[in-house]
């Protein structure tokens, strides 16, 4: 059984939902499931609208060097998953900052 999301991860999930067209979830979700859903959305954008993917990464403030490293060094079938993990970690950092200063 997977662990439910922490308070910070729930805030991060709200941030992720704001940027990505993720489906509404009727059940509790784990961090791993969030990354998989995010990976699927990224995969679609990689195939259909790369420019929009770059815009979202810029808006989320994923570092350009990190984005470039993932796009150029990850195995082709791992790019969406590696990018999802990086974006999820960035959103958790932003959630932590929001919680700390609110």
Description of the structure:
- Helix content is 73%, strand content 0%.
- It has 102 residues and is an all-alpha fold.
- Helix 2 packs across helix 5.
- The longest helix has 22 residues, at 79-100.
- The mean pLDDT is 89.
Keywords:
102 residues, mainly alpha, 73% helix, globular
Distance between the termini: 32 Å
Q: Give the number of helices.
A: 5
Poorly predicted segments: none
Instruction: Determine the strand fraction and express it as a percent band.
Output: under 5%
Indicate the percent of residues in helices: over 70%
Radius of gyration: 13 Å
Q: Main beta sheet: strand number and arrangement?
A: none
Strand elements, count: 0
Mean pLDDT, all residues: 89
Written as H for each helix and E for each strand, in order along the chain, the element string is HHHHH
The chain-level structural class is mainly alpha
State the shape: globular
Entry summary:
By secondary structure, this protein is mostly helical. The chain has helices at residues 7-19, 31-48, 50-60, 64-73, 79-100.
